[in-house]
Amino acid sequence: MAIKIPRTVIAEMISHSLEDDPEECCGFLLGTGDEVTRLRRAKNVDKQKIRRYSMDPIEVMDIQQDADTNGVRFVAIYHSHTYTQAHPSETDINNAVDSGWTDPYYVLVSLVEKTRPIVRAFTIHEDKRVEEIVITTDGQAYRGANGPESHA
Ligand SMILES: [Zn+2]
């Protein structure tokens, strides 16, 4: 299993994460099947934006309508971790399962190393198991923002 994300979309996710740092950012990766074609940012309206994210429900409705109108789906939900690794937290896992949104993948951007953001993708199963998914970009396995070697 793999999620295909164009390099431009990965770059946009990292920009969004850096712009909102130290607060967490969030949004959707839209596309068909497991292939992402574009990104939609969503506003983080959580009270503790440094440690959590909650998407603005009005914006989510708008993005859902955008997806329906254009025949694309939510391939993934992305958000940043500004102080922790690119792995879903306990809260992320509970939120995914409680909200029933276990169909989209979860893409995490970690800014623990500001000069070298790490991007990883996961499936969160209904039984709260978390499984890492390979990210491919331009036909190759994605190995991080700046270099050929993986920090995973
Ligand atoms: Zn998180």
Q: Predict the CATH topology.
A: Cytidine Deaminase, domain 2
Task: Give the strand tally.
Answer: 8
- Helix-strand category: alpha+beta
Beta fraction: 25-35%
Q: Tell me the span between the first and last alpha carbons.
A: 17 Å
Radius of gyration, in Å, reads 14 Å
Helix content: 10-25%
CATH class: Alpha Beta
Can you give the mean pLDDT? 93
- Main β-sheet: number of strands, strand sense, barrel status? 8 strands, mixed
Please, how many helices? 3
What's the name of the CATH homologous superfamily?
A: Cytidine Deaminase, domain 2
* Number of structural units classed as domains: 1
Residue runs with pLDDT of under 50 for 5 or more positions: 146-152
Task: Describe, in plain words, how this protein is organized in 3D.
The protein is of the alpha+beta class and 152 residues long. It has one domain: Cytidine Deaminase, domain 2 (3-Layer(aba) Sandwich), CATH 3.40.140.10. 24% of the residues lie in helices and 33% in strands. The protein contains 3 helices and 8 strands. The protein has helices spanning 7-20, 57-69, 90-99; strands at 2-4, 26-32, 35-42, 73-81, 105-110, 118-124, 130-137, 140-141. Strands 1, 2, 3, 4, 5, 6, 7 and 8 form an 8-stranded mixed β-sheet that branches. The longest helix has 14 residues, at 7-20. The two termini are 17 Å apart. The model is unreliable at 146-152 (pLDDT under 50). It binds zinc ion. Zinc ion is lined by residues 79, 81, 89, 92.
